[in-house]
Amino acid sequence: MDSSTTVPTVTNSSSLHISQFILMGLPGIHEWQHWLSLPLALLYLLALAANILIFITIQHEPTLHEPMYHFLGVLSLVDIGLATTIMPKIMAIFWFDAKAISLPECFAQMYVIHCFFCMESGIFLCMAVDRYIAICHPLRYPSIVTNAFMVKVTGFMVLRNSLVTIPVPVLAAQRLYCSKNEIDHCLCSNLGVISLACDDITVNKFYQLFLAWIIVGSDMALVFSSYALILHTVLRLNSAEAMSKALSTCSSHFILILFFYSGIIVVSVTHLVKEKIPLIPVLLNVLHNVIPPALNPMVYALRMHELRLGFRRLLGGWRIVHLLQK
């Protein structure tokens, strides 16, 4: 039986119900989408290797046991989780034509994607607040940003994003899927799945908007407000050296935050032209889930001197151990 078709089951109510979805991949280029598997696989491997290296370095180096690097380590774990949630299935689609996915697996993937995505936004907010306190209130920084503070903030973000994303798959699972089961996507996006439902999806769309504009939107507003206050404080500094150091510390954060939230806006806007050019929003959605996990470590490694020193000490230590074992 071809993987792109599913035999519906008939119930006593004479309604047709599907038992699995078919992820068709990138719309309009199904015949040659496998050629994109190599760059996507390389991006995924780069994201895994770089984020694992950053996390190990932060844990291994005592000089990096600071709040800023704590949040960076959490961000690395979130990036690993986000990329790993989607890339193995995408590679299976491109390489082995394994397009079928059961409804429970699809809803589980939907939940994990939303959870990690909101978690990344929350961690960017934590990093922005950390930099705001460090630069705008430097004397109070040690008393405010303590180990207990970091644990509480991180725990709050994990709890918030784990709970607010539960309704997304729950509401999607309550819909009736009775006819078409082919999704023109590489992953189980909420809007892509519920568009196949035979009943009303108004509540699903409303909660998706709530999640995007209230949760992630409020994070974005607070992040940019923090950096506006930071810029205002930095421009008032009398010392050019202090100004340069403050801007250098924040620039790497701001580059990634700008890329992350700009990507969200672009993906949202391209959904408006989905009927005319269906490939663009799907491809951008996939890239927005895999490029930031690969890009984040490179930006931090290039712009943070302490992290580069940590890499060298860690890799140098491994080289010495290897030589001693010989």
Could you characterize the architecture of this molecule?
With 326 residues, the chain is mainly alpha-helical. It has one domain: Up-down Bundle (Rhopdopsin 7-helix transmembrane proteins), CATH 1.20.1070. 71% of the residues lie in helices and 4% in strands. It is built from 11 helices and 5 strands; from the N terminus they run E-E-E-H-H-E-H-H-H-H-E-H-H-H-H-H. It has helices at residues 37-60, 67-96, 103-136, 141-144, 147-164, 167-173, 190-194, 202-235, 240-270, 279-303, 305-325; strands spanning 9-10, 16-17, 20-23, 100-102, 182-183. The strands form 2 sheets. Strands 4-3-5 form a 3-stranded mixed beta sheet. Strand 1 and strand 2 (16-17) form a beta hairpin. Helix 1 packs parallel to helix 10, helix 1 (37-60) packs across helix 11 and helix 2 (67-96) runs antiparallel to helix 10. The longest helix is centred in the middle third of the chain and has 34 residues, at 103-136. The model is unreliable at 1-15 (pLDDT under 50).
